[in-house]
Amino acid sequence: MNLREHMQIPPSIRIEVAVADHPELTRMIQVPRRAPAHWVIEALRLSFGAVGDEDEYQDAEEDGPVFLNLDYWDPQVQEIEVDGAPPGMTLTVRGLFGPEVGEARVSLVDTQIPEPPASGAWQTAPPPFRLEHVNFELARRFGTVVPQFDDSGIASVERGIRHSSPIAQLAASLPSVRRLALRVHLEEAGILDATSPPPAEREASTEALRMLLACVGDEGVEQGDDGWMPSVILGELTGSLGWTDAADGAGVEPAAALMTVAREARLLRRLRGRVVVTNAGRSLSLGHQRAFDDVINAVRDLGRRRDWRWAGQSRDTTLSLLAIADGSARTLAELPDLVAAGRAAFDAGHERVAAHFESFAGPLFGGSESANGPSSAQVVTERFAALSEPGAFGVVSPTMRSIARMSLR
User: Fold this and answer.
1) What does the alpha-carbon distance between residue 294 and residue 303 come to, in Å, rounded to a whole number?
2) Considering the domain boundaries, does residue 162 fall inside one?
3) How far is CA 151 from CA 61, 148, 163, in A?
4) Residue from 38, 33, 39 nearest 63 by CA
5) How do residues 220-253 score in pLDDT, each as one tens digit?
6) Are both 329 and 397 inside the same structural domain?
7) What is the pTM (predicted TM-score) of this model?
8) Number of domains into which the chain is organized
9) Is residue 312 over pLDDT 70?
């Protein structure tokens, strides 16, 4: 591995500070893109030779932020006051720039600023401006530009893994030793080589959905008590699929699993008191390949839509998908125990951080499940159970493993 490929130089912004009718007082300051406002103020103070405590503005910002908009995509003319500097200054962000390694992190860019001679005693008089001297002092205070290692978890080093993918987020939140073990596991289980299931597998995995659509027929059926399919029809359908006896250990109702995916994949809709097949449903019934892809994509996305929070998909959802993808789960009923085993890979420090955020944000990625509503393992089980083959409700099929692998990337 060439670690240099993962080194990045943080970008900088340039800020123009001007004084009306005094072009000789114009300053162009370069600071890191995410620099606090007091860095800009300190650079101004030194450039104008203003006397003051070096920590004055930093302390002020800790008590209450110095309000400067340093967003390079939203350049605004802002008024700014600095003790000892000329009054009437305005600040404008001029854009994003790429600094060189070894440059001062905070510096004044040469804009032909006049360098007047010294006047008065050095012990008391303001120092005359010297660009080189000011930049040297700024380098002493804020350091120089150095490359940073791009620690983006597994996404940086594994092919085909997006930085925002669930498996990348899972890897980034693991302790280092567990992350090393996970990388080897992903390689040996073939998860990094995820491919779409072949046509024959896709057709077999959607047979139950196509039988559901056949029950609805061209004329549709009257809505049941819940506003969707009558329970009698669903009971007969799951019985003909051989799913009734196998449902006890799966932790999810076969009829509920079918209807959840059928609704979310927009295969059915309600119309004037009846449940009817949509155009997407008819396309699936006719065996169109595009329709199979749409159903698979709907299953892939369901868990993500349900679990979306500030930090993305929940940890337990990712652990559930991983257990399906790597073959650990032979049946969907095993997911809760496998998720519990996966949680043990997280150290106590991660759990404490997650609990802190959950106290006001709900279950974030890396956190535990909410007491309200179904668990992530139950949600994943319900979505994938609808793709069970006849006579094998809740048995993990090659198609389910392929879909789970694609969902993790």
Assistant:
1) 15
2) no
3) 29, 9, 10
4) 38
5) 899 988 888 898 998 899 898 888 755 455 578 8
6) yes
7) 0.62
8) 2
9) no
* Lowest mean per-residue pLDDT among 123-127, 129-133, 272-276, 404-408: 123-127
In this structure, is residue 153 part of a structural domain?
A: no
Residue 142 resides in a domain: yes
208 in the same domain as 348: yes
Helix (H) or strand (E) holding 12: strand 12-19
Concatenate the DSSP letters of all residues of 24-51 into one string: GG-EEEEEETT--HHHHHHHHHHHTT--
- Report the C-alpha gap between 399 and 317 in whole angstroms: 18
Residue 14 and residue 79 in one domain: yes
Categorise residue 87: left if φ over 0, alpha if ψ from -120 to 50, beta otherwise: beta
- Cα within 13 Å of Cα(66), Cβ side: 21
400 plus 312 within the same structural domain: yes
The widest CA-to-CA distance across the chain, in whole angstroms, is 100
Q: Which domain holds residue 223?
A: 199-408
- Structural Rg of the chain based on CA atoms: 31
Give the pLDDT band of residue 168 (cuts 50, 70, 90). Answer: confident
CB atoms within 10 A of CB 20: 11
In 42-142, where do the E strands start and end? 78-80, 89-97, 107-109
In a domain, 191, yes or no: no
Please check the confidence at residue 259 and state whether its pLDDT lies above 70: yes
- Rounded to whole angstroms, the Cα distance separating 346 from 375 reads 19
Q: Is 275 exposed, middle or buried (0-12, 13-18, 19+ CB in 10 A)?
A: buried
* H or E element, residue 187: helix 176-189
Residue 201: closest CA among 103, 289, 98, 109: 289
CB 399 within 8 A of CB 200: no
Please report where in the chains the tokens 């390949």 appear, as a residue. 289
**271 and 374 in a common domain:** yes
Token pair in block for residue 11:
């970008």
Q: How is residue 332 written in tokens? A: 């969907």
Q: Tokens standing for 149?
A: 């290692």
Write out pLDDT tens, residues 6-38: 678 888 889 888 888 888 788 899 999 888 888
With cut-offs at 50, 70 and 90, classify the pLDDT of residue 279.
very high
Identify the H or E element spanning 140: helix 131-142
Q: What is the 3 state secondary structure string of 267-319?
A: CEEEECCEEEECHHHHHHHCCCHHHHHHHHHHHHHHHHHHHCCCCCCCHHHHH
